[in-house]
């Protein structure tokens, strides 16, 4: 509803009118705004109070309209508090999160008035910066890194590089206590014997699996992996040793990079042997 304005005089107009009337009724006294005399103070007080009266007077049409609707039984809509989102930034060089309690007051400027809001729940502001986004599909066994150079589609993989990797380890300290050039034969045992050869081929495929050992400083890939007749042969040519891990176990590790379907083993037989000859010092 566009309410009519019954009196459109501003406070400045009121004070100007008061100054004119003062010259007519009391020519011996001249009103000067801000002057340090009792008359000017009374004039300022009168102007302020009269302006408030005009403001209330201009509300009469709207209040009359509302009262008329109340007589008709028309209910005004319930008050809905305004809501919005606000972002907090952490200043300084610290990356430590800063707690913001519930009820923290913030304000938004509207015309000449500050509208105050309060936060609904406690949060923590952090200076951390988003570096990468990864999508995980547990059912499909996939982890993909999102391409942030364009639009990112959430809640689904996009067919990119699969970063998912599984690892299992085979350990037997007496058999795997090796140094220098050597070979490890891994014989697989499965309840369904006809699957053994297929499993050996899968684990010997470099696109599916990568066989490694720990030399005390890093994981190194075996130089050659051969698959045949139910046996995987892992060979290394270097002079380093297969070193124990932090728990004292010597292992060979298999990192499975991808592929569909799981692998179930009922047993593994490990054999090892030296290969090549080591030079002796004179």
Give a summary of the structure in a few sentences.
With 282 residues, this protein is α+β, with helices and mostly antiparallel strands.
Q: Could you tell me the number of beta strands?
A: 14
Strand order of the largest sheet: 7-13-9-10
Question: Poorly predicted ranges (pLDDT <50, ≥5 residues)?
Answer: 278-282
Our Rg estimate from Cα atoms comes to: 42 Å
Instruction: Tell me, rounded to a whole number, the average pLDDT.
Output: 85
Measured distance between first and last alpha carbons:
108 Å
Note the main sheet: 4 strands, antiparallel
What oligomerization state is this entry in?
single chain
Annotated CATH architecture of the domain at 166-274: Sandwich
CATH class categorisation of the domain at 166-274: Mainly Beta
User: Helical stretch count?
Assistant: 5
CATH topology description of the domain at 166-274: Immunoglobulin-like
Shape: rod-shaped
User: H/E order of the elements?
Assistant: HHHEEEEEEEHEHEEEEEE
β-strand amount: 25-35%
Question: Considering DSSP H and I runs of 4 or more, what fraction of the residues is helical?
Answer: 10-25%
User: Structural class of the secondary structure composition?
Assistant: alpha+beta
Outline the secondary-structure elements.
Elements: H1 11-25, H2 38-57, H3 60-72, E1 98-100, E2 105-110, E3 113-118, E4 123-125, E5 134-137, E6 142-145, E7 166-171, H4 173-176, E8 182-189, H5 194-203, E9 209-214, E10 219-221, E11 224-228, E12 231-236, E13 251-256, E14 267-274
Antiparallel strand pairs: 1-4, 2-3, 5-6, 7-13, 8-12, 8-14, 9-10, 9-13, 11-12
């Amino acid at each position: 509803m566009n309410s009519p304005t019954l009196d459109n005089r501003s406070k400045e107009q009121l004070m100007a009118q008061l100054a004119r009337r003062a010259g007519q009724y009391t020519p011996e006294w001249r009103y000067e705004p801000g002057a340090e005399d009792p008359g000017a103070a009374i004039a300022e007080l009168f102007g302020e109070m009269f302006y408030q009266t005009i403001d209330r007077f201009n509300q009469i049409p709207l209040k009359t309209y509302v009262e008329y609707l109340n007589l008709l039984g028309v209910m005004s809509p319930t008050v809905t508090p305004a809501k919005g989102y606000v972002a907090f930034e952490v200043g300084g060089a610290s990356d430590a999160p800063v707690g913001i309690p519930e009820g923290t007051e913030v304000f938004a400027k509207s015309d000449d008035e500050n509208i105050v809001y309060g936060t609904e729940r406690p949060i923590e502001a952090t200076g951390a910066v988003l570096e990468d986004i990864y999508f995980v599909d547990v059912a499909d066994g996939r982890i993909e890194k999102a391409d942030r150079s364009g639009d990112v589609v959430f809640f689904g993989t996009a067919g990119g590089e699969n970063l998912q990797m599984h690892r299992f380890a085979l350990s037997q300290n007496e058999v795997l206590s090796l140094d220098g050039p050597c070979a490890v034969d891994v014989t697989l045992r499965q309840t369904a014997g006809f699957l053994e050869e297929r499993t050996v081929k899968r684990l010997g495929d470099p696109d599916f699996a990568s066989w490694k050992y720990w030399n005390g400083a890093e994981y190194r890939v075996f130089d050659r992996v051969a698959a045949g007749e139910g046996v995987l042969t892992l060979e290394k040519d270097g002079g380093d040793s297969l070193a124990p891990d932090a728990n004292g176990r010597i292992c060979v590790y298999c990192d499975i990079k991808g592929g569909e379907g799981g692998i179930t083993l009922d047993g593994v037989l490990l054999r090892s042997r030296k290969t090549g000859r080591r030079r002796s010092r004179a």
